[in-house]
Design goal:
By secondary structure, the protein is an alpha+beta fold. The protein has helices spanning about 5-10, 55-70, 115-135, 150-175, 180-205, 245-260, 260-275, 280-305, 315-330, and strands at about 20-25, 35-40, 45-50, 90-95, 95-100, 215, 225-230, 230-235, 240-245. The chain has nine helices and nine strands. The strands form three sheets. The chain has a five-stranded antiparallel sheet, with no helix packed on it. A two-stranded antiparallel ribbon has the order 6-9. It has a two-stranded antiparallel ribbon with strand order 7-8. A hairpin with a 5-residue loop joins strand 2 and strand 3 (about 45-50). It starts with 5 loop residues before the first helix and ends with a helix.
């Protein structure tokens, strides 16, 4: 017997012949979503329960509209949502939003086989996505060039850190009960202090630039790009989608795939630009997004853990994420 409310939700999709339901929990992710793999004669599907914090119902409808629009333009790497009996793609059940989508094949295994061919495939897929969703008719953001809201947000976050929040975070890290978090936290805070001034100057320049804003994934990284062999067969998790500059997606994805390898960065940017050319402003924004992310992403983890008291199922995965950030921030500060 299926746990409630899954029977009620699946009954909304009368054309789906459910043969088996596998509970995947959060599937190793950190978004707070819950996933189930639904087996059907026509192939597997993915049922997702979104966290209550995000997105809103209107926001999820917008995400679904973008995915359907991109799929109609030939993007078959996307988890396209299914219509239920009410003619909608969003299910609202007992205070939670659900969606039923195609199950995307492949594995997030770029790091296991980091070739130029696979890197080019990932960047070309991202360029195709950006090109497809740029023509979505339901514009939500400002029309015409504008400053990047994501980079303005990071500039303001950095200002707050440098004017009081950093000391509060350092105190919370020092008092935290886990020595593994303490040790990594002290190193992250040390390198943050070394690198903050240079990154602040770069963000200040880049945040003033006006560029075209369009739908961006904003959480596109190694674990959200699925490969079958050398081919990208899936992009997953669009919950953070919002209008911004494509530079935010490029910085996030390339940094997560290749770290600080300059040759690989060049390969990635050339592959993307071969499909969708980049402006000089976008190239500067990519650098600003990457360096500000390296500088502050580790501190975000420290705030979630040491200040907000969040708990994550896979503690070793959290430590690996902190270690990855430590390697990159050391390099940023000239110590790597």
């Amino acid at each position: 017997m299926l746990p409630s409310p899954l029977p009620e939700i699946l009954r909304r999709f009368p054309k789906v012949d459910v043969r088996n339901v596998e509970n995947l929990g959060n599937a190793g992710g950190f978004s707070g979503a819950c996933l189930w793999k639904i087996t059907t004669p026509a192939g597997p599907l993915c049922l997702r329960a979104w966290p209550k914090s995000h997105p809103s119902e209107d926001g999820l409808r917008h995400i679904h509209g973008l995915l359907l629009h991109a799929a109609r333009q030939g993007m078959d790497e996307l988890p396209v949502p299914l219509l239920h009996g009410g003619g909608n793609t969003v299910v609202w059940e007992r205070g939670t939003l659900y969606e039923l989508t195609a199950w995307m094949p492949g594995e997030a295994d770029y790091h296991a086989s980091p070739t130029d061919q696979r890197l080019t495939a990932a960047m070309t897929t991202l360029a195709r996505f950006h090109t497809a969703v740029a023509t979505y008719p339901q514009v939500r953001g400002p029309v015409g060039p504008s400053c990047s809201p994501g980079l303005v947000q990071r500039r303001d976050q950095l200002d707050r850190l440098l004017h009081g929040e950093l000391d509060q975070l350092a105190t919370a890290v020092a008092r935290y009960h886990d020595p593994e978090i303490n040790r990594r936290g002290r190193h992250l805070l040390e390198f943050f202090r070394r690198g903050a001034a240079n990154v602040q100057l770069l963000i200040g320049r880049a945040a003033a630039l006006k560029v075209v804003l369009q739908p961006c994934i904003r959480d596109i990284w190694h674990d959200h790009v699925l490969f079958t062999g050398d081919i990208v067969t899936g992009l997953i998790d669009f919950g953070a989608l919002r209008d911004d500059t494509v530079a935010c997606d490029l910085a996030r994805l390339i940094g997560s795939l290749v770290g600080d390898r300059k040759t690989a960065w060049s390969t990635a940017l050339q592959a993307y630009a071969a499909y969708r050319p980049l402006s000089a402003e976008e190239n500067l924004l990519i650098r600003a997004f990457d360096q500000s992310g390296v500088l502050m992403s580790g501190l975000n983890w420290l705030r979630w853990i040491c200040v907000e008291g969040k708990r994550f199922d896979n503690h070793q995965h959290v430590l690996r994420r902190l270690d990855e950030n430590l390697r990159r921030i050391e390099h940023l500060c000239g110590s790597g």
